[in-house]
Design goal:
There is one protein chain. This protein has 464 residues and is α/β, with parallel strands linked by helices. Helix content is 45%, strand content 17%. It has a seven-stranded mixed sheet with strand order 3-4-5-6-2-1-7. A six-stranded mixed sheet has the order 9-10-8-11-12-13, with helices on both faces. Strand 12, helix 12 and strand 13 form a beta-alpha-beta unit. Helix 14 packs antiparallel against helix 15. The relative contact order is 0.13.
Amino acid sequence: MSEIFATTGTIAAIATAVVPQQGSVGIVRVSGSQAIAIAQTLFHAPGRQVWSSHRILYGYIRHPQTQQLVDEALLLIMQAPRSYTREDVVEFHCHGGIIAVQQVLQLCLENGARLAQPGEFTLRAFLNGRLDLTQAESIADLVGARSPQAAQIALIGLQGKLAHPIRQLRANCLDILAEIEARIDFEEDLPPLDYEAIISEIENITTEITRLIATKDKGELLRTGLKVAIVGRPNVGKSSLLNAWSQSDRAIVTDLPGTTRDVVESQLVVGGIPVQVLDTAGIRETLDQVEKIGVERSRRAASAADLVLLTIDASAGWTAGDQEIYTQVQHRPVILVINKIDLVQEDERNTLQSQIPNLKSKICTAAAKSQGIDALETAILEIVKTEKIQAADMDLAINQRQAAALIKAKISLEQVQATITEQLPLDFWTIDLRDAIHTFGEITGEEATESVLDRIFSRFCIGK
């Protein structure tokens, strides 16, 4: 068995981020049969405070041998089964930073606990029946959410609303299997099997599977976000665009071409979608070795981006350099950003419009004056809709693992339909039907294998 399945004993871990000089509170979490005993060994609660479940005690953490004071803290007690793991759990709420929480964790390890594996607290919650596997994955999504909408989708999964339709599909398949097996064992005592009803029910199940699979891309967009690369010739205003969009001075802006030598990154949220914006070095032929490296990185960033903002200088018109860059990125979704529009007259704008390619998405900006940002965000959201990965109005969204399992279940059910059409014996029907039932169980965790659990929980942070 992998280490993540060594779920015996009492575990401990720091449950909050450890950052120097930041964070007012740091939490050390302990779960298992020795959790309360460890707390009683380390924690001194002055006065007549009552040690009982779901109470918070005030006091001091001391070294049990030397009685040296380690920290002033609060102690939260949660006795089984009314805890996150359904085991006895205690939490030491210490002062934040680095030293205090690490000292308290070390004392816990010296007095009967072992360091938790990544995701082991949530794994214990799953193994003890508090969570199903979709809820456990939703916890990881909630921790890593990069927008309010992503957090909302994770909360929907945490409430069990994703597991419900999966369980219903599995139950429907079990009903079909029971009907078939009853005919195999007691054919003479039961009426003939309604073939049309079986086929219709399987079609209904596959239709629902298709609907669920269609939510994967939407969910991935919310979880991982959209990677957007700002590309163009030197000095067209790419860095000014990034600064205006992010409302910060993320990139250095000068009148000298080639100022940006590397990819500068900023994290934004547009219409509820996390957006990773990459300001790239100006693309041109150059003998400067450092700038040449930056140009190559710009090309790689554009190739890997979900969306390219091809930025041009309105006052310079559509140049051969712009055309060359457009040729390199036209295989990606592209928005043409006509920047420095405040420097040209109306007739010059019309001339420029006749020169540039017939791109579906064009917007005008004056980045130095923070103008045109709303139009840019509107254009980005329109591209997202065009790509049919709109993230709004979602009631649930599956992840890649769940989508792969649903595709596998759908293939199994289609094979059942083929078996029926070919008029093969009933025994053959049950083979692929059982595979579909097993696959549904893998999604919710009712039939999850060790390798599946290992893959899921190893991606968690240690204290979760």
